[in-house]
Design brief:
234 residues; alpha+beta; Beta-Lactamase; 2 domains; 4-stranded antiparallel β-sheet; 5 helices; 10 strands
Amino acid sequence: MSDVNNQERIVNTLEALFAAVTLSTKHLSAYVNQTLATIPVAGIASDKQRESSLRKSLYPSIEKILLESQFCSGAGFASHLATENLAQPYWFLEWWFKNPKSNQQSCLDLDQATQQRLDFSTFEWFKNTPDAEDVCLHGPYVDYVCTSAYTITAASPVVIDGNMVGVAAVDILVSRIEEALLPIVKQSSSKVVMTNSENRVIFSSHLHYRTGSLLNIDAPYQITQNGFCKIYFL
């Protein structure tokens, strides 16, 4: 098979992968929106029973995403409530991830004090998600909270009555992207490097470029790009 065909396969594989993750994130955002229509997140800070009910109501939709998507490694809903009625901001995070050791879903169980120290409202996938019905991709970054592995997060705002109340998010491990690409890359004579829009390396078959590093190339190599990533054929 020619290099041109291999390059097309690489591009098509990535487009299909990110399209699937984006669709899963949109579905999760819609599920969360429906749940919050009956159990508003605004009142949970002062009502532990209500918070427990919200978590139980959110879990089936999160589980559905994890079971149905072959690419998603984690999924959940995050909310950061800062209102005049609260003495301090209230963090709400319902997050489940696939446990590679047991091949089952595990819950990220953090108490309020831990969540405040963690302060996920400063995370890129939370603070940079726009107030629009869209999905934003963020990463790669090392997820020190769940997997200690390079991760990309797809995030979508959850909007109730015109107000953003939180973020629905789905994780994909960079290793999962590598698994999808390696069989094709091995058939290509070109070295393949994929970066995000800021030239941070996501995947590389070139020994000089590693995941997480910044790619600095002056030569006019062939590049294919979309809104999130760029693919270099060296």
